[in-house]
Amino acid sequence: MTSVTSASYDVKWEKLPDDFILPDDPVDNIHQPALAAALTDSLEVAGQLSDTAVTTTNYGIFATVNGKIVVKAPDWAYIPHIRVPKEEIERSYTPQLQGEPPIIVMEFLSDTNGHEYSIKPTYPPGKWFFYEKILKVPHYIIFEPYSGLIEHYQLDESAGYKIQSSDDNGRYWIPQLQLYLGLWEGTREQSKGYWLRWWNEAGELLLWGSELAIEERQKAEVEKQKAEVERQKAERLAAQLRAAGIEPEL
User: Fold this and answer.
1) How far apart are CA 123 and CA 105, in angstroms?
2) Bridge pairing between strands 61-65 and 68-72
3) What is the DSSP string of 113-158?
4) Over its length of 250 residues, how does the chain's per-residue pLDDT go in tens digits?
5) Phi, psi of 28 (to 5 degrees)
6) Range of the domain at 214
7) Which of 14, 57, 100, 126 has the fewest CB atoms nearer than 10 Å to its CB?
8) 128 with 161: CB under 8 angstroms?
9) How many beta carbons lie within 10 A of that of residue 3, not counting itself?
10) Cα(156)–Cα(241) distance, rounded to whole angstroms?
11) What keywords are annotated for this sequence in UniProt (predicted)?
């Protein structure tokens, strides 16, 4: 992907006016809410979300560019630290003013447009241009839910996005999170398909809450079975002692 030639833009990080009407477009991919929720779920379960970290879903990230308000709403984003109460960012989020910029944004492709690749610099600017040149987000993920194709673009030394290759496991390292992002095929909440998931540095999959609950139930069942085996062994030993004329100690 060819990046826009670097130019000078007047970017201001200001609070969104209270009377500004945010776009209320419906999500353009039926998988988007579930994909986004799954990404956040495993981070929360693994304790990877601090009190000041925020993940957003179809939520406006705002900047004033050349005197005009620009709002983009990535399908999923990870903001590592906000400096204001979360109540102050209920309508939108302004990087620099209210906290740090996102370290990763994601777009889940629909079959309706190619806006995710737009490098249009004039108003209203394209998503790619806004993430790369204005927000300067280190990682931009474009995901095709139907085919499972992941495109990982990372800012290089020239502050432009460069596509990254996956490792031998088909995963991408996100150093700011100390996690790998990769593809997983399976079922979540009765929905079967491709999912974006996290793995830690040791290659262990970060579980969803539902998976952790199943795992804990299975562990409890194993412990219950072990306890039953031990009880039966104790009963057999007691019976053997009584047969030998020895009353076992209770």
Assistant:
1) 21
2) antiparallel
3) --GGG----SSSPPHHHIIIIIS--SEEEEEETTTTEEEEEEE-TT
4) 433 334 578 999 988 888 787 766 555 566 789 999 999 999 999 999 999 999 999 899 999 999 999 999 999 999 999 999 999 998 889 999 999 999 999 999 976 667 899 999 999 899 999 999 999 999 999 999 999 999 999 999 988 999 999 999 999 999 999 999 999 999 998 889 999 999 999 999 999 998 888 877 777 677 778 877 888 887 788 788 788 778 877 6
5) -100, 15
6) 208-249
7) 14
8) yes
9) 18
10) 76
11) Coiled coil
In a domain, 226, yes or no: yes
What is the number of domains present in the chain?
Answer: 2
**What is the reported pTM?**
0.84
My answer on whether 185 and 212 are in the same domain is no
User: Cα–chain-centroid distance for residue 5?
Assistant: 30
User: Domain containing 142 — which CATH number?
Assistant: 3.90.1570
